[in-house]
Specification:
Helix content is about 45%, strand content about 15%. By secondary structure, the protein is an alpha+beta fold.
Length: about 425
Amino acid sequence: MLTVAEEQGLSGLALASQVQHALYRLPEGEIAGLIERLRQGALERHVFYLHDGELDPIRILPCPITILPSQLSYIHAVTLILQEALKRFPTLYFSDPRVREILRLPDAEERWLRECWGPSHVAHNPIFGRLDALIDFTSPMWRDSFRFVEPNLTGIGGLHMVPTSERLLAEIVVPALRSVDPDLHLEVGHDMRELLVREILDHAAAIGSGSQVCFIEPKYSGEGPDEQEQLAAYLRDRHGLTVSHADPSELTLHRGAVWYDGTRVDLAYRDYGVVDLLDLQEEGVDVEPMRTLLRENRVISSIAAELDQKSCWEVLTDPDITERHFTAQERLVFQRHVLWTRVLSDRATSLPGGHTGPLLEYARTNHDNLVLKPNRAYGGDGIIIGPAVSTAEWESALDAALADPDDRWVVQQVATIPV
């Protein structure tokens, strides 16, 4: 007898197989034409990276990834539980010394957190994040494969590119698939930009603010994804919001209010961390406008997002901590879906399986089951996948991480990557 979840996984496999079979029935020349139309669509709709000012279109693969509504509902429920737990981390940071040690910030960044976290944030804490996870929708054990890798709590990528790519697939590929399989019915997923609009409007109402929004990012870098201006245009065109787009150096403070180019900033959506603002301050940029916005709870994501670290998962997978601060339902979600993660150091800790033991010894003898990551880096920088390296290479990487004077590192359970 199959469980409901197993039946859903098999249904997901059947749907994915139907999509693939339809794709395989298309002539090679037609598939090549679809790929070229996707490339052109990526250029036309700003789905690209900038490298030294040059446009590099994102390659959109023509085979859609499919998900059943019931699977989507489960993912939403689990993700919201995890998101709400992460929003409470500043309170835990200030009240629990063990949490503070796990999430330890440099002194300058901690001063910003202490200064900018207040009663308004406790009551209304806007975090618009992306929680990276792995999942195999086509497995009968798809729920067990759903494992969170790390949090990204501010300035997340993909808000323009993901829904735009989905719509390109819907416009270009899905009609071709239905031409060979009329029984194939696919719908576009939820538009993340609409979730951002809802977050902005809800937070403006919660704090009694106006709705003049400023998108703040390193506007003139000439590198990386070109998303913020596209997002600003979407909010202006689709929802009639007043949206500007600024670099932090372009903000000014006048009579207690923050302004950009003659327009008062009521709310800001930021792709800038405090560590980046501190770098700007050293260069002579006045960052007081950003500090004011954060202190007044006018920024999405709030100052709480400064605790965005891979070591967040240690807080959620340490039984002693979770029993003190989280409900039984929350703990069950963490146990099932959050990968065991520990800040690398010479200490005893709870290990996978529930027993307590020496962390370094476990890390050295279980490299086939572990990944080594810099705690606060992003973009895949510095990650060592244990099963992909030799024992000698793993040992060397651990020693280098332990000796790193600038960054802390974490070890994490390796997760299965569906292909």
